[in-house]
Amino acid sequence: MNLHIKNMVCNRCKMVVKAELEKLGFKPLLVELGEVTLAENLTTDDKIKIAEQLTRFGFELLEDKKTQTAEQIKTALINLVHYTKEPLKINLSAYLSKHLKQEYTSLSSIFSEVENQTIEKYFIAQKIEKAKEMLTYGELTLSEIAYQLNYSSVAHLSAQFKKVIGITPSAYKLTSTDSRKTLDDI
């Protein structure tokens, strides 16, 4: 049986969910970001017990199909921006359609309805958060960060960064007045 879980955004999240399910006596066969495959079928009481346990750690069991799809989109984008080692040289609509096996127009409509923002705005927010992380570590130049995040130029990254954060990347690096966000808060 598959469970869809909101707010699973990192490997630590996967470890916590797996450990909590095992504590409850369930056998997770596969634990991925946003989804768990269990060996057994669940009763309504089992789902309630799991939901209560996971809520303690900031996770949420998703039952609604639209909400599951929106969460799958978010997970795909988080993976793309934060965990892919190659520069982001990809068409976003083609990537999501292929990854989720649905037409992009349908995915876009569902995401906007559930999240009250567009996929593109969410994607930009993720990229800006990644840029903030890269700036904080100070290992890459602004030009290298722009390349890694598939911006056409440093000016484009700077303009988008300022629009989202309110200050330029250079000012952010110097002051770090805006604290970074956790991935599930974006």
Q: Could you give a short description of this structure?
A:
The protein is built from nine helices and four strands.
User: What's the CATH H-level homologous superfamily of the largest domain?
Assistant: Homeodomain-like
The CATH class name of the largest domain reads Mainly Alpha
Q: Give the biggest beta sheet.
A: 4 strands, antiparallel
> In angstroms, what is the radius of gyration?
18 Å
Mean pLDDT: 90
Shape: globular
Low-confidence stretches at least 5 residues in length (pLDDT < 50)? none
Q: Order the strands across the largest sheet as they lie in space.
A: 2-3-1-4
How many β-strands, per DSSP? Answer: 4
| Individual helix count | 9
Specify the structural class.
Answer: alpha+beta
End-to-end gap: 29 Å
- Helix percent reads 55-70%
What series of H and E elements makes up the topology? EHEEHEHHHHHHH
CATH fold type of the largest domain: Arc Repressor Mutant, subunit A
Question: What count of domains describes the coordinates?
Answer: 2
**CATH architecture call of the largest domain:** Orthogonal Bundle
Percent in strands:
5-15%
